[in-house]
Amino acid sequence: MSSREKILAAVAQNQPAKLQLPDVNLFETGTEGSLENFIKVLSAIGGKAYSINDLSEIDSIITDDIGIRGRVVNLVEGLNLTNAEEIITDTVVHHLHNVEMAVVKASLGVAENGAVWVTEENMNQRVLPFICQHLAVVVHQKDLVPTMHDAYKQIDQMPGYNYGSFIAGPSKTADIEQSLVIGAHGPRSMIVFVLK
Questions:
Q1: What CATH number should be reported for the domain holding residue 44?
Q2: How far apart are CA 109 and CA 10, in angstroms?
Q3: Helical H segments across 28-186, by residue range
Q4: Backbone phi and psi for residue 3, each to the nearest 5 degrees, phi listed first
Q5: 131: containing domain
Q6: φ, ψ of residue 76 in degrees (nearest 5)
Q7: In angstroms, rounded to a whole number, what is the distance separating the alpha carbons of residues 141 and 194?
Q8: On the CB side of 54, how many CA atoms lie within 13 Å of its CA?
Q9: How confident is the model at residue 24 (pLDDT cuts 50, 70, 90)?
């Protein structure tokens, strides 16, 4: 037996007793995500939320209230936006540098931190929600959960996905001279449309 094998055998013989996993049921909330709390937290972190009854309301909000006039990419099925691209056929991600607004669908939203869960299937290109100037996200109110613990439980039940990301508010940093900069390395604004 080599020295390596002797060491590994000694380690294997001197393992501590196995312990039972801790009970994490203390994180159970048993309640639905609060729309009011989601909006409050998202607003506090620099985002904006609109509670809507129908997807058709989004077009006027984007063009009239927000005033987006540049390149808009809409990847939400069933949403018709004026002068928006609905399919990204160009696979060169650098060609997305001039996207003024991207509109994507989220699988769920988290009330405790204002985050939304977006998978690659809903963003088409992984870089899209981070390279655009303004990000708009559509999430159903029934898909709001109270905490990140609830979010991870739901994600665990979702069918397979390649990539997903929690996105919360516009990009911001205060690393340089402790001065808050919005849009430093991502969207300058984030709007969430909560569909009732």
A1: 3.40.50.10420
A2: 49
A3: 35-44, 57-60, 120-123, 128-131, 148-157
A4: -60, -40
A5: 32-195
A6: -100, 120
A7: 6
A8: 4
A9: low
